[in-house]
Description:
The protein is α+β, with helices and mostly antiparallel strands. 14% of the residues lie in helices and 17% in strands.
Amino acid sequence: MPSVTKVNGFLNKFVTGTVFQNANLGFYQVTLRSTSDTSNTAINLQTQDGDAAGEADQIVELVVKTTNAIAYFAPSAAAGVLSIVVDGSQWDATALATAIETISGVGTDTIVQAADQLDFIA
């Protein structure tokens, strides 16, 4: 009778403190900055989220559209941090940064890094 053990079964996929996924998803944290001169001025996403009537094509919406994000989370803070989940076969950190930096108002000081944890808590 076959059995599943830690040796031949789950390959330590259930270790706490790690991000694991069974699909071809990419998890990234984007720190959006308005500058391209290393002054690292964060974009206040609270003013760029399109939450008021008539606000369209704000930076949060444009990042989601540009990256075709599967899921995203923008905390209510002024740090410019946006967590996104994208198709891992289409994007890596460099390609995401290049695409996001083409959005008006986003500078090349923007940082995109693979997320080693998911922070979807407000």
